[in-house]
Amino acid sequence: MVNYNIWTAFVTVLICVLGLLFAVPNFLIGTSDTASGVPGFLPQKTVNLGLDLRGGSSLLLRVEVDAVFAESLQAMVSASRRGLRSKQISYTGLGVEENTVVFTLRDPSQEAAARDELSALLGDLTLNVEPNGRFVMSFGEEARIARQDLVMDQSIEIVRRRVDEMGTTEPLIQRQGEDRILVQVPGLDDPERLKDILGKTAKLNFHLVDARVTPQQIQSAQVPPGVMLVPMEDGSGMLPVSRDVIVGGDHLVDSQPSFQDNRPVVSFRFDAAGGRIFGETTTNNVGELLAIVLDNKIVSAPRINGPIPGGSGIITGSFTTQEAADLSLVLRAGALPAPLSILEERTVGPGLGADSIAAGKIASMVGLVLVIIFMVVTYGMFGVMADIALLINMLIILAVLSVLQATLTLPGIAGIVLTIGMAVDANVLIFERIREEARNGRTPINAVDSGYRRALTTIIDSNLTTLIAAILLFQFGSGPIKGFAVTLSIGIASSMFTAIMVTRLMVVGWLWQRKPKSIPI
To answer: What percent of the chain lies above the pLDDT cut of 90?
Structure first.
């Protein structure tokens, strides 16, 4: 173990130098999101601070999955009505009852034809036909769980896109339980805007206004089948629109805030398929009103004065400049598959984070000083070497966190403080073994060689068991636990490197330079 070739020494020194270079930016400007104050020849990445250190907003959201099932059942009602009518199949009582779509055939002899027509429309619904000719369509348990998981995955992705569009860095967005999403955005100075943006479903649909419905029918809410009353966003009343969606927001590819007649508007553009449908609809319905429905409210209902090819247009309304920018943001990010409700809101001020950072610094410094004093008093010059390796270990941990752009939280600081104490464990094992071998009459070179060789297995075993525990914490833990596991894992790996490689390089260098007769340990 005292044979330390030139390439091994070179790699060891190189890693230490790289650790110093990547750690330095954090000391020049502090832990932040950007390294604009760092000289160009240094790496530009620094450690990000988590919500509990930097302050920010935390929201616990609930995804209203039941609304998705209700919408799917209502869509099945409309599709069944069109399909049965196209095949001239007579029925009665078509509607939604207790999370199922039901209807009864007037003529039982049409059961086979009805089955064939509905089989292409079912999707993940299950069809059962009762003896009295009553058709029942519902979600099975497996289909319900699969749909819920899909809705949750889509919701998390859309929330992530919206938060990223706001220009924030390192947000924590993760699923909790069956229907909840935790959103933590460090450094956000406008939590109300975050709530507004995440609270919008941003479901954009285009419907034709049904001109056959009279004002008396609207007032009495007695509209024909296939027509629904939708309120105007400005509260001016309601309009009867067709339930059939001409083109939906899923065909939207771009949306930007703009101005028209010195008023903020939102421009939009469809993909090729959506643009074709939009063009055909406007061509075939010149003179009709086209309702632009956003989140179940009509933002505008312009008259189609002529064909609109190209699949682009604008949304007008009583927008402010910020509202137009936010609406275009959520439209670009995509519509949520289900509404979100805020169950819990928490705002952490930067003052609390500053206190936590100060407490973490004090704990780290006290622990570091005590360990340094203990090692010097107990092992003398060898203890000084271990202390130098300990400082290098701290730099390597900070460097790795910077390269990974990791988010440092209070549990992460706890992991670093714990690492300070654990970092000298390997050196203690090695030095005690060297001391024992020296007492048994071995020469300094033999004692060092035997000490490193015999302690190596114990060092690997002890650190490996701790590393396994840290990996399990990362795999099954939540955000704060994962932060602790990350810093602990990095600390274990770096402490093994500094104990086995860095300290050994210094000890071997001292042996070959001084050629001592005895070991001062």
So the answer is: 6
pLDDT tens, position by position, 287-321: 888 888 877 888 878 888 788 887 787 877 777 88
In a domain, 157, yes or no: no
Q: Are residues 204 and 271 in the same domain?
A: yes
Residue with tokens 């024992």: 436
Query: Which amino acid type is present at position 124?
Result: D
* Overall domain count for the chain: 3
65 DSSP β-pair partners = none
Q: Which domain holds residue 489?
A: 6-55+351-514
With residue 430 as reference, give the H or E element that holds it: helix 425-439
Please provide the size of the chain in residues.
Answer: 521
Q: What is the pLDDT of residues 259-279, one digit of tens each?
A: 888 888 888 888 888 888 888
Q: Are residues 44 and 102 in the same domain?
A: no
pLDDT given at position 31: 44
- Average of pLDDT values for 455-480? 84
Contact between 166 and 177 under an 8 Å Cβ cutoff? The reply is no
Tokens found for residue 369? 């000083």
SS3 281: helix
Using CA atoms, how far apart are residues 405 and 419, in angstroms rounded to an integer? 20
Q: Is residue 461 part of a domain?
A: yes
Largest CA distance in the chain: 110
Helix or strand (DSSP H, E) at 467: helix 444-476
Q: Is residue 30 over pLDDT 70?
A: no
| CA nearest to 207, candidates 334, 331, 80, 298 | 298
Residues 37 and 122 in one domain: no
- Burial grade of 408 (CB within 10 A; 0-12, 13-18, 19 or more): buried
Residues 496 and 375 in one domain: yes
Where residue 267 sits, what CATH number does that domain have?
3.30.1360.200
CA–CA separation, 418 and 429 (whole Å): 18
Name residue, tokens 């105007």: 232
B/e letters for 155-187, b = 16+ CB within 10 Å, e = fewer, are bbebbbebbeebebebbbbeeeeebbbbbbbbb
How many angstroms separate the CA atoms of 383 and 427, rounded? 9
Q: What CATH number did the domain enclosing 383 receive?
A: 1.20.1640.10
- In angstroms, the CA 322 to CA 382 distance is 63
Nearest to 431 by CA among 379, 476, 497: 379
- Cβ(64)–Cβ(341) under 8 Å? yes
Residues 371 and 510 in one domain: yes
